[in-house]
């Protein structure tokens, strides 16, 4: 079954999150995703609040920019959420918007190198390993969590470019793709992710601090390794509904500079949105997170629309 969720966009004030999260829980929405866009709400603080206000809905953060965080802090916060709310947090890490990283003095020369080092160290720490490493950006000396997650937890990576997508396949448990990814882009992303997975299987995990942290996912023989479809791909889908939906969708695509990309976004009723979700699923998406436009006039109504009208139409 294709997973389905919605986004609480950070253009909304933080105090609006409570009503949206509780409605997501009450209506049976599977996942509610939050963003850590500079300089709006913090990802961990809002995720913790949303998890505390709800009982069953999974809360995703897509994504935490790694230049802003020491990996030990990321691991501590992720582990705490997973221990307090088992099975419900979903955390993705990524490069962050480079202009924003520059604004806060955190921009690095090689974002891919930083993301690789962060992913490897983060997954090791969350697996309960004691980590010592001296990378280009990530440096840890005999670090281990006192309270690692009680069960293995996936770590997702946000990625767009070819190198980052291959890295996601090689070093993460899943990938988050932006709403600027049409179905053909999802297919291409899957191919690049598969290349990364094949590289990981071919090289093994026995180098540096990665040794032994992923044994549950891969076997020594590539023929018996976990197939690539176990790498979860989450895709955002920009959507608008209501009488002014086409105009709002066009305006947002134009503002993002992607109005000429075919098959991007959807405007219309639940049937139209469900068909767009299915196109992404057919292209390789495991979960589609429906993203309202930034000027969505009724965020609570949008969550109800996704949960009660779109969900029944998505296999």
From TrEMBL:
<dbReference type="InterPro" id="IPR036661">
    <property type="entry name" value="Luciferase-like_sf"/>
</dbReference>
<dbReference type="InterPro" id="IPR011251">
    <property type="entry name" value="Luciferase-like_dom"/>
</dbReference>
<keyword id="KW-0560">Oxidoreductase</keyword>
<feature type="domain" description="Luciferase-like">
    <location>
        <begin position="13"/>
        <end position="286"/>
    </location>
</feature>
<dbReference type="Pfam" id="PF00296">
    <property type="entry name" value="Bac_luciferase"/>
</dbReference>
<dbReference type="InterPro" id="IPR050564">
    <property type="entry name" value="F420-G6PD/mer"/>
</dbReference>
<protein>
    <submittedName>
        <fullName>Alkanesulfonate monooxygenase SsuD/methylene tetrahydromethanopterin reductase-like flavin-dependent oxidoreductase (Luciferase family)</fullName>
    </submittedName>
</protein>
């Amino acid at each position: 079954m294709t997973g389905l969720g919605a986004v609480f966009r950070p253009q909304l004030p933080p105090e609006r999150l409570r009503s949206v999260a509780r409605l997501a829980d009450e209506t049976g929405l599977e996942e509610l995703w939050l963003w850590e866009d500079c300089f709006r709400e913090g990802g961990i603080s809002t995720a913790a609040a949303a998890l505390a206000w709800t009982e069953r809905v999974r809360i995703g953060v897509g994504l935490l920019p790694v230049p802003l965080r020491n990996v030990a802090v990321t691991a501590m916060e992720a582990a705490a959420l997973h221990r307090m709310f088992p099975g419900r947090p979903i955390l993705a890490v990524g490069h962050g918007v480079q202009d924003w990283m520059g604004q806060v003095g955190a921009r690095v020369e090689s974002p891919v190198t930083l993301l690789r080092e962060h992913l490897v160290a983060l997954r090791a720490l969350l697996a309960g390993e004691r980590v010592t490493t001296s990378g280009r950006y990530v440096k840890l000396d005999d670090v281990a969590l006192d309270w690692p997650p009680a069960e293995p937890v996936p770590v997702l990576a946000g990625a767009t470019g070819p190198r980052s997508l291959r890295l996601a396949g090689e070093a993460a448990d899943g990938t988050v793709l932006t709403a600027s990814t049409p179905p053909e882009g999802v297919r291409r992303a899957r191919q690049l992710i598969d290349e990364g997975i094949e590289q990981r299987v071919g090289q093994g995990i026995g180098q540096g601090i990665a040794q032994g942290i992923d044994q549950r996912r891969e076997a020594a023989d590539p023929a018996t390794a976990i197939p690539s479809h176990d790498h979860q791909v989450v895709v955002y889908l920009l959507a608008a509904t209501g009488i002014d939906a086409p105009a709002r969708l066009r305006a947002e695509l134009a503002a993002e500079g992607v109005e000429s990309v075919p098959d991007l976004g959807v405007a219309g009723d639940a049937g139209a949105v469900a068909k767009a979700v299915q196109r992404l699923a057919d292209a390789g998406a495991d979960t589609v997170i429906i993203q309202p436009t930034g000027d969505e006039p009724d965020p609570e109504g949008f969550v109800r629309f996704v949960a009660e009208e779109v969900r029944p139409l998505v296999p």
